[in-house]
């Protein structure tokens, strides 16, 4: 151990010589942090005076009067400064040592500000974190100087209307952590102290959960009683920490001094908001009336946000935001004390908590407007079950969108920190639990439980608490090992016979038996479409549900999602005979389908003008992307770009070349591999061993195809096509290269997103290499496994390529000519993200149910901080998004509705097809002009939709049933 410590010390001593030139790996940062934890000065080197003229003086040599006052604080160790330069990681930030613009750090998505917040959280849950010993380094940080800096920072920041419009949530959250008026974040301190105690003494866990999820003043006595009951087993350190927690809890539950609110916002006196604050503070009716207090505080929270921009003075804005924080504290506390007795009171509480989360920034104002009509209607005497179910859906949406706001703002920096400090993983949850969104979620859960009882549409998921937050997305059933992934899914190697619970599914998900996700992305992403197509059960759940399922990780379970979205998850030992019978070998074999190849034409060796192909050529000359887009070009010539098609025949001709290192051609290598695999299976070798052999051979083939020589005649044709069809020389116009195989968009298999698309390529050599990469992509592990699992002849895959010029869209997405969430055939489902490609890749997109006869419902707002731009120089550039404005406007929605009507009417006629089901359309808008990029059949799993078992677990619900709002809870 001593030898290891010496080596680590030598490594750290050497760091200054190369750290600036080389980005540190996470394990190296972890070593650095551990060193700081054991250093009596933590991340700091020494203490100095920093004078107004820029000079730096020793601690005992203060700045002289003739050059003005200075501030005294620590200097960072050289390693800390170097880490900031190499990794943009800033440890132990001293505000008085920081430029305000650098701290706001706009070009890095405000990383430094967010790191300051993370630092405070980590210090609270890990005994000072990097300052475990350095927290006693006297004079390193001067509280009064930090507060003065905080005031200066907000004076500078709040000058800007744009900042408040675009970053209201982040600005308001920062006020909880950046000192500016002497306040502390007592709520976070209480949660952190209870977590530390439960980590040290496990029996405290139940009380910790209570304090974190539903804090009440009565918890103080419970903690005192716990200490008395466990005195004999507690160390003096734990006993002292419990005493400190009790003191913090008393501070937290101390009533907010409502009368003092006008003093906090003294500059607002005489303004409209100042009058509302004075009226609230002087309202004696609020005393001992928790219902009225919650209502009035929520309304004032909402009003302050709506009126904040009318106040132009930065200091007055800061005061109003401080009042806003006090009001959130009032709502948080009064919510626990206000326990509705009737359904009407519960709906009233949900409505005002919805206004409170909006005023607190967890919802944007335009998002609340989309919810308000449902959540503000609680004055009638009775409502139908259908109407109440819609209220539940909209209220649940408010909870989900609020949690997503926290994640969207902090997930990126949390993921970066988790790599070297795992404790950071609790930060987002802590932010949510410290917000009014926590109480909104609890109230929505109560409403969900009531509606489940009335409709008998209840989830049965391992006996978890608050199951009303679980909702099915795709019907299906599965049996296998349950794998609960609490953190990032990026490095998870999935198995096709297991059921996964993800925070967020990977965009390149390989076959799985079933999935459930906290962040569903959007319902028309490639992952979701594959799940729906193949009958893979899929559900959305809450963070709390995921944490509760951790105890069942590794267990064999049965998992089912009904056609109406109720969910069953049970242990293998609890399965019925009917459920066991669903997984016979024979039934699974019957699910596989065959790729038709009888009409394929491999004799076409010319690069084609997309105008010269149409739907009749799909699966013959090229795949459905090119064929259908060619069809759309005929139907909507002004809405579709020009394009080139590299048909199956050109790929097949190249595959007849001799394969380097082999005595056979590329194609013979491929066919030989499948023949050998069939022989191995016939001889009794296990499917897993055969699959491993195939993947090894496909890896060899894939690497070889990426280096395959392109025939001169083909390159010449391509150059000619660029010039004549796309209007520019090859190498001067950015294009997309879209893989387009004969295995996509079959009657019962979609294949969505399984193969490669090259984004926005310009350079000639990159385009030519991209063609090879696209040809190789069907032989990746992911693509092969999906085909192997669901196709009878996966060896007969032929890629064509669609080449189309890039359109740097403002926003793009997917249209499904069916109401997926409502199960209605005439309505539409759309998902749009800013920039290019986000919705199909599973981003948290803006989603709507658009009614055919008019009107629409916002299903989810976009919650992605970055999106893809397509520069003319090629590649992609990340652009930053904010959420104060919607993605689609009213004109866009109306145009999409008209487009869908035209597609339903004209496409079957002009393709001479009897297809009557829904279509999946990719499209985008540039300067409000609609562009079409793809159309394909929307393939659903008929077996899942028609399953007698799934039908049997779906209750028949009488949505017309009347329910009195005076009903007791």
Automatic annotation (TrEMBL):
It comes from the Bacteria. Residues 621-943 form the Pyruvate phosphate dikinase AMP/ATP-binding domain. Pathway: Carbohydrate biosynthesis; gluconeogenesis. Pfam families: PPDK_N. Residues 1-21 form the signal peptide. SUPFAM superfamilies: Glutathione synthetase ATP-binding domain-like (SSF56059). GO terms for molecular function: ATP binding; metal ion binding; pyruvate, water dikinase activity. It comes from Flagellimonas alvinocaridis. Catalyzes the phosphorylation of pyruvate to phosphoenolpyruvate. Belongs to the PEP-utilizing enzyme family. The keyword Signal applies. This is Phosphoenolpyruvate synthase. Keywords: ATP-binding, Kinase, Magnesium, Metal-binding, Nucleotide-binding, Pyruvate, Signal, Transferase. It catalyses: pyruvate + ATP + H2O = phosphoenolpyruvate + AMP + phosphate + 2 H(+). Its EC number is 2.7.9.2. PANTHER family: PHOSPHOENOLPYRUVATE SYNTHASE. Its cofactor is Mg(2+).
């Amino acid at each position: 151990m001593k030898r290891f410590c010496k080596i680590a010390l030598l490594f750290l001593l050497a760091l200054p010589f190369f750290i600036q030139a080389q980005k540190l790996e996470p394990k190296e940062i972890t070593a650095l942090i551990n060193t700081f934890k054991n250093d009596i000065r933590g991340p700091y080197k020494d203490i100095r005076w920093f004078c107004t003229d820029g000079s730096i003086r020793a601690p005992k040599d203060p700045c002289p009067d003739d050059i003005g006052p200075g501030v005294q604080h620590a200097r960072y160790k050289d390693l800390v400064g170097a880490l900031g330069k190499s990794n943009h990681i800033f440890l132990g930030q001293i505000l008085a040592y920081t430029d305000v613009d650098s701290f706001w750090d706009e070009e890095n998505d405000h990383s430094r500000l967010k790191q300051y917040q993370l630092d405070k959280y980590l210090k609270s849950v890990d005994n000072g974190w990097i300052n475990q010993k350095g927290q006693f380094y006297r004079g390193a940080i001067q509280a009064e100087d930090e507060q003065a800096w905080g005031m200066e920072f907000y004076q500078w920041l709040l000058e800007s209307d744009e900042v408040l419009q675009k970053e209201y949530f982040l600005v308001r959250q920062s006020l909880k952590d950046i000192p500016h008026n002497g306040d502390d974040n007592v709520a976070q301190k209480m949660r952190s102290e209870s977590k530390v105690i439960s980590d040290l003494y496990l029996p405290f866990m139940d009380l910790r959960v209570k304090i974190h999820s539903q804090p009440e003043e009565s918890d103080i006595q419970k903690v005192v009683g716990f200490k008395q009951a466990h005195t004999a087993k507690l160390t003096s350190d734990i006993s002292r920490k419990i005493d400190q927690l009790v003191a913090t809890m008393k501070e937290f539950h101390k009533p907010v001094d409502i009368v003092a609110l006008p003093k906090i916002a003294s500059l607002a006196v005489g303004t409209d908001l100042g009058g509302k604050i004075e009226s609230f503070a002087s309202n004696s009716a609020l005393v001992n009336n928790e219902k009225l207090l919650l209502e009035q505080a929520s309304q004032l929270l909402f009003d302050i946000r709506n009126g904040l921009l009318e106040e132009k003075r930065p200091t007055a804005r800061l005061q109003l935001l401080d009042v806003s924080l006090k009001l959130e504290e009032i709502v948080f506390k009064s919510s626990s004390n206000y326990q509705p007795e009737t359904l009407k009171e519960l709906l009233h509480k949900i409505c005002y908590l919805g206004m409170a989360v909006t005023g607190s920034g967890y919802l944007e104002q335009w998002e609340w407007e989309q919810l308000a009509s449902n959540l503000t209607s609680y004055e009638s005497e009775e409502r139908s079950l259908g109407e109440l179910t819609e209220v539940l859906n909209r209220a649940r949406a408010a909870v989900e969108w609020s949690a997503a706001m926290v994640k969207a703002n902090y997930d990126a920096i949390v993921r970066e920190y988790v790599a070297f400090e795992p404790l950071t993983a609790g930060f987002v949850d802590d932010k949510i639990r410290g917000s009014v969104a926590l109480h909104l979620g609890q109230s929505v859960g109560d409403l969900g439980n009531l509606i489940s009882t009335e409709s008998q549409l209840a989830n049965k998921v391992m006996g978890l608490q608050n199951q009303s937050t679980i909702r099915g997305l795709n019907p299906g059933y599965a049996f296998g090992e349950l794998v609960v992934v609490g953190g990032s899914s990026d490095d998870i190697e999935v198995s096709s016979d297991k059921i996964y619970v993800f925070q967020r599914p990977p965009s390149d998900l390989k076959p799985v038996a079933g999935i459930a996700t906290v962040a569903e992305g959007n319902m028309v992403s490639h992952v979701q479409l594959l799940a729906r197509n193949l009958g893979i059960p899929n559900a959305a759940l809450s963070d709390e549900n995921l944490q509760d399922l951790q105890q069942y990780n590794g267990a064999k379970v049965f998992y089912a999602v009904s056609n109406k979205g109720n969910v069953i998850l049970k242990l293998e030992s609890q399965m019925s005979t009917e459920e066991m019978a669903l997984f016979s070998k024979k039934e699974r074999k019957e699910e596989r389908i065959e790729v038709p190849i009888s009409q394929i034409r491999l004799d076409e060796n010319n690069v084609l003008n997309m105008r010269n192909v149409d739907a009749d050529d799909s699966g013959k000359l090229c795949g459905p992307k090119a064929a259908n887009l060619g069809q759309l070009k005929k139907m909507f010539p002004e809405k579709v770009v020009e394009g080139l098609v590299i048909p199956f025949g050109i790929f097949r001709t190249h595959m007849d070349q001799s394969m380097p290192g082999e005595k056979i051609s590329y194609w013979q290598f491929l066919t030989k591999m499948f023949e050998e695999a069939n022989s191995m299976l016939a001889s009794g070798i296990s499917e897993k061993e055969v699959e491993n052999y195939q993947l090894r051979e496909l890896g060899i083939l894939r690497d070889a195809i990426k280096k395959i020589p392109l025939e001169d005649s083909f390159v010449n044709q391509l150059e000619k096509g660029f010039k004549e069809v796309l209007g520019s020389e090859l190498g001067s116009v950015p294009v997309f290269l879209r893989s387009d195989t004969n295995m996509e968009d079959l009657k019962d298999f979609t294949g969505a997103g399984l193969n490669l698309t090259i984004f926005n390529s310009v350079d000639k050599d990159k385009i030519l290499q991209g063609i090879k990469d696209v040809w190789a992509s069907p032989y990746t592990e992911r693509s092969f496994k999906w085909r192997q699992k669901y196709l009878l002849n996966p060896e007969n895959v032929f890629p064509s390529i669609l080449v189309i010029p890039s359109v740097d869209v403002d926003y793009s997405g997917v249209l499904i000519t069916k109401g997926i969430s409502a199960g209605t055939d005439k309505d539409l489902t759309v998902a749009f993200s800013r920039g290019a490609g986000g919705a199909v890749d599973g981003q948290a997109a803006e989603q709507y149910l658009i009614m055919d006869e008019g009107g629409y419902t916002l299903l989810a707002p976009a919650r992605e901080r970055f999106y893809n731009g397509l520069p003319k120089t090629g590649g992609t550039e990340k652009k930053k998004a904010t959420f104060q404005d919607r993605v689609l406007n009213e004109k866009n929605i109306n145009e999409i509705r008209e487009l869908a009507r035209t597609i339903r009417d004209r496409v079957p006629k002009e393709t001479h097809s009897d297809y009557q089901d829904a279509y999946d359309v990719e499209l985008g808008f540039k300067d409000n002009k609609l562009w079409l990029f793809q159309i394909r059949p929307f393939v659903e799993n008929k077996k899942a939709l028609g399953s007698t078992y799934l039908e049997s677990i779906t209750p028949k619900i009488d949505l017309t049933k009347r329910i009195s709002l005076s009903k007791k809870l």
